[in-house]
Give the backbone structure.
Amino acid sequence: MRQLIKIIPFLSVFLNQLKAYGMATKRNLNLTLKIWRQKNRKTEGHFEIYNVSDISTDASFLEMLDILNEQLIRENKEPVAFDHDCREGICGMCSLYINGRAHGPDTGITTCQLHMRMFSDGETIVIEPWRSIAFPVIKDLISDRSAFDRIMAAGGFISVNTSGNTLDANAIPVPKEDADKAMDASSCISCGACVACCPNGAAMLFVGAKVSHFALLPQGKAEAKRRVLNMVQAMDEEGFGNCSVIGACEVECPKKISLDNISRMNREYMAAWLDTK
């Protein structure tokens, strides 16, 4: 009790200093936004300049865009179209190229998790959609990422007997290391940052994660060869480039998917391809 009484004054001073620091660092920003505008995929796009003021550093990046759109609506101008859904870093919808980086200047986050405290007062922020032949622009900052859906439809699943005789997943022992690696691979949210930041426009980190997720588990073994062959073929047909191990995809991935998954996919593919010969 005596020790607690001795600590309380120091704790009070620390909390006051912390509060003062927060008040000192909290500020509002005046920003210039250079945003890509494009009516549809058939028209040429261009950058337009907008100014926003009094933006709180506690606001998220998408909240800042909401404020811009409210401003444009009041001015009877067309708001900027951009993708978003959960705003919790789960769905992968909010995919923007900000100041030359996928999802912006922070790491290990999606665009919706980016906060305005990462920017400076008076800064010009360049905002673009994903850039890839396989991701055509639908409108403004919205890209068509349905290529990922078609790759998944080619083999990103496990066929399960749902007749009522399905075994409980926990009935099949899985080594801890394999389970951890499969869980890490499954954290991919299909946002497309790996494609956007790759100079080759490669989707191999995405496909590698989806292949690894099942290849590491007993439930995925039965269809493993067919899965990897079909998914890689679908990836190539969609027009994605090939991997040259630059590593930008792993750096910019909001879920930190490892390049090891690309290596695993290549091994799975080679084994499956040789089995067909």
Observations:
- The mean pLDDT is 90.
- The chain has two domains: 27-139, 146-275.
- Residues 146-275 form a domain with the Fumarate Reductase Iron-sulfur Protein; Chain B, domain 2 fold (CATH 1.10.1060.10).
